[in-house]
Amino acid sequence: MTEPILFSVDDGLARITLNRPTRLNAFDEATSRAWERITAEAVSRDDVGAILIDAEGPSFCAGGDVLSMAAGGFSADSIAELAGVINRGILSLVESSTPVVAAAQGTTAGGGLGILLASDYAVVGEDSRIGSLYANMGLTPDLSVTAHLGRAIGQRRALQLVLQDRLLSAAEAVEWGLVAEAVAPDQVRARAEAVARFWLSGAAAAYGQAKRLVRAAPEVSVVDQLGDEARTIGAALATPEAQTRVAAFAAASARKAAK
């Protein structure tokens, strides 16, 4: 049996690959439970400093498996329960101190938008299309779309997506701030991996904590956020890596000033 999600770790990079290309990588029960298990493992491993989410086939993710829904494969209770399972995986990524990059080729729609929003940096193809499309099927957004979309692009733009059947072009998605970059379709994975390797080649722990602080900010008071910032930078400065990098930066600045 083919695994619905592939998982591997290589030199600090965890790769999570959606692997149902004939169903546009839509989530069924097996995929949902694999997602929860794999994301929890990825963020808990000491040998992982960055996570890359990609997908097999021409599209990134179409959300829930509509064909299974139409065939009676989901009841109201079961789809709500599986949404909770997927949400736990999304929370594993969002609440972690591990930076996440997504390589999203082709179309991303429905709950796939929530998977994309679970990343901290998204790379798409120049021919990609991204949208909501829930209401086309009489459904409401799930998988963190209403929790994260407005924070990512602003409430008014979020409403434009969820209240219309609009699919953003890659250029529009970049302009709206929904994704970071649009590259040639055959370069999406390579560029996303380059982003992840950039994190790993630098101060990976600092990038991870910066991600955590920004993600946490809407949930806490300014006073608590400032306290968290102060504690985090203090802990970072105490690490040998930061001390080495600060010393190198200061030495380079001194040489530049002396010229």
TrEMBL record:
List, alphabetically, the CDD domains matched: crotonase-like
Q: Which Gene3D superfamilies match?
A: 2-enoyl-CoA Hydratase, Chain A, domain 1
Organism superkingdom = Bacteria
Q: Which SUPFAM superfamilies match?
A: ClpP/crotonase (SSF52096)
Identify the InterPro entries for this entry.
ClpP/crotonase-like_dom_sf (IPR029045), Enoyl-CoA_hydra/iso (IPR001753)
Give GO MF terms, alphabetically: catalytic activity
Signal sequence span is: none
Pfam families from the entry?
ECH_1
Name of the featured protein: Enoyl-CoA hydratase
